[in-house]
Amino acid sequence: MNRKKPYNIAITFNNDATTEMNFVWNTSEDVVESKVEIWEAGGNVQTFTGKPYVREGFKYHPHHGLGRPEIVPPTTPEHIQVFAVHKITVSSLIPDTKYEYKLGGDSEFAYGSFKTGKASGGFSFVYLADAQAYSDKNFAAFNRTAHAALCRVPHAGFVVMPGDMVDIGNSEELWCKFFNAADTMCTCYPIVPAIGNHETDLYHSTFTDHFNFPKSKSPYLPDYVYTFDYGGARFVVLSTEHWCSHLETDREKTIAFMDAQKQLLRSAFSPGCDKWKIVVMHKALYTSGSYTPHSNTAMYKQIFEPLFDELGVNAVLQGHDHTFVKAFVRGGKAVPLINETTAKTHDGTFYLLSNASGEKFYDPVLEAKDLPLLKYDQPRLQMYTVVHVTEDNLRFETYVITEKGEALYDEFLLQK
To answer: What CATH superfamily is the domain 119-415?
Structure first.
């Protein structure tokens, strides 16, 4: 591998999805220039430059033949991978316009394209739950899922991934495998990632070295808690990680972190917001897998669900528990539907957990039968969901990947 050539390329939204775009890529540590050139068809080339920073990540080895990787403690240089992180924001773009780009530095470049966001009107996007991959076989399954989703909606505005993209978030080998498996998804479609617990385990995570987020305006919030508008929808991406592993030793910081996220929600979904209100988060409030009785599930439900009800959040896209779940609730209780698959938005919030885009699945637990769920199941097949947004409707179509191809597994419609 020529590590001077850009790799692990990802596009993400900045503060304004219609006129700005964030880029990130990695190279060997001796590449000291960051450059992005962009142009629309027949237009002039705009050039943006910057300086990279150097980071260290860890490698892994198979864990006693069980297949799952473990991090090698960084005791010797061969356990460490040093790399440069390049982050550039391009601006002054035209909304809803296709751009070509060339990025790199030190005479080694990569090419791609993207489309800026829409200020208004209908659009579609893809939602891919946990890949959580660690083997070539895992990543191949994720590759098939992502490819199928974008073949179905090549016009998708972006791809939502609510965490756990890799099994261990500080293994650079796994991140390389992820971006190789994602292929053109990350180089041609903006990615909307939330941080998961597998991006925050053991030692330090390099999650933020692989995505370029808007700069946080809050001293209590990391950059990966953020908002953006696209068309007629407003999105808030939350963190169910960060200080949460220190609930006993650092409780004041945890409370401040949660309060800051609640304040962000109130600000984004203020009474004057007439857009669709969509939340992306890793740990699920409504689930049916092994985390159903977990204390974290109860904690986040207590923190966020009353606020979602108060603010009129329309939909919550979840991850973490690797099952399929849909629920339409208010005040912790199921809300009657117009029919089996249609509801009115002002009646409640729609919660969706789209199983997994990789190979790891959890079976439903007995406690799930006591929850106000519309449907929960485990077909043990990779899934993806396409969300269609119009002025009057949110339509969710979930597909499974089978040996014979794809099949529509579930659908749900929210009507204003």
So the answer is: Metallo-dependent phosphatases (3.60.21.10)
